[in-house]
Amino acid sequence: QQEKEDLQRKLKLREHLSQTASKSEATLAPSKNVDLEMRQLQCKLKNSNNEITKQLTTIKSLKKEVQEKEERIRERQAKISRLERDLNTKRHFIEDLRSRLNASQQNETTSNDALESLERKVVKSLAEDCLNKKTFIDSLKQRLNEATKEKSEYEQMYHKAKDELEKKDLKLTNLENKIIESECAIAKLETTASQQLCDLAKQSEQALETVQKKLLFNKDKVEEFTTFVKALTRELQHSIQELRTKIKRAKKMSEVRACKKGLSQESVQLAASILNVSTTDIEEILEVEDDEETAKTKMEFEKDKEWLQYVQKLLETQ
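Structure for CNTLN protein, as requested:
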């Protein structure tokens, strides 16, 4: 722009000079040097104009770049402000984290102590578990050895049993053949047996009829026998009671006679005079039964009754 202004000034001066020269020297012919200078100046002007257009285009492009850069600067300033805000928040966050770190470090120390004590306990318990497991493994090994021995024994037994089974299979096949033969024989026997059974059934029906007749006859005889036994038992009881009463009377008579022989008539009279009773009353007193004898008689009477009941039960049963 400055060069353009300088050239324009020079052109104006030259024009002014040419005008003054044309006025003063109108009559004179234009000089060749002035024309040449004019042409040179015009060329320079054209060149300068071209350069100016070029520079204007460059200026416009530069202005666009400047605007873009300003926009970028604004964006970056906004980013910087955001980053500053983030930085402030991060600083606060870091301070919180530091405080938390301190607290966590304190907690870590306590937890480390607790962990160490726990580790010791765990190590002890693991050592005890290991010892127990070792003993358990040893016992399992012993069991395994015993199991292998038992397995070998069972295998031997299995082979023996297999051989025996093969032998028994042979026997079974033989037995099956025999069974088939026996079934055939049984079928023949069944046919013969069925015929014989029919004959026997007919015979048994006849025999049953005769047996039923005999049973009816026997029932009548049994009833007669039961009535006879009942009458016999009653008569036996009655006769036993009579015998017992007779025996008692005979005993009493013998005792009374012995007493009369022992006692004199004078003693009887004395007793009668003392008691104010006649001699006959005294004899009756002497003949009174003892309590023991009455009890015995009752017991015997009850035993007789029981015996009668027992006989009746026997008769009622089969």
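The helical segments are 2-24, 32-262, 265-275, 279-286, 291-316.
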